[in-house]
């Protein structure tokens, strides 16, 4: 694709993350948000009007039939991700799907197979690879200035009711393992540059209405010898979010989204790490660049597949424990 030719991207998902992607895409030169599809035409029309998108569509199929749409970003409910990713690839559209790629290993592998057959760009929104705070640590590791010994992560939310990030009722149920753990499992392997060779998990009681575990603990070990401890909860009543402690041989670093500090709470300026402090924007910039340059993106489907294979192994463990 010519660098001067506008790249027309359609968005599926008129929710909180859809809005983040529209804002991010507006900051990328030569990109146009061509259309939006949401849960229905009324919802898509309202989103298009609010965010200045030229066209609203009733269904994803309608978008995929548009000859002038080059790519699609999927910010839709998790249970739709794998099916919609494959639909985009079959329609000849490059695709970026929000994390997780799928909620089963079989569906994830099917996405990889189709992407490899198509030769199109297929990318998954593992945003932690793009947050400047985590990029800063990654560059130190890559330069041989830091050897990661342990990654300690807390992922905490308060979701005892089935609500989305905007506090609205959700039509599907989120999952600690296949969604929230995926961020850290992939990040740990990426930061160590080493495959995960051991993974263990335990979880708390299943919620009687939501049908999922509300608390979970995961341990990982990489071939390099580095270990990771991940605690996840939907029962935590603040503070909310994900907190990362990198313990290395030459320093300790605390990351929370795009902020970074030393183990002594001394702030580290990461504003010059990349062209933006917005991880979603940097993620979308990589998607656009990979399409324009005809290359594999960071966080490609192939690159993140080891994460989903690890999640499947953990799911099997939990099933054997009789708590999944």
UniProtKB/TrEMBL annotation:
Keyword Transferase: no
Entry annotated with the keyword Oxidoreductase: yes
MF term (GO), any: oxidoreductase activity
InterPro entries xrefs: Gfo/Idh/MocA-like_OxRdtase_N (IPR000683), Gfo/Idh/MocA_oxidrdct_glycsds (IPR050463), LigC_C (IPR045560), NAD(P)-bd_dom_sf (IPR036291)
Domain 4-carboxy-2-hydroxymuconate-6-semialdehyde dehydrogenase-like C-terminal: 132-274
Span of domain Gfo/Idh/MocA-like oxidoreductase N-terminal: 7-126
Domain of life, per lineage: Bacteria
Keywords linked to the UniProt accession: Oxidoreductase
Pfam families according to UniProt: GFO_IDH_MocA, OxRdtase_C
Name of the protein in its database record: 4-carboxy-2-hydroxymuconate semialdehyde dehydrogenase
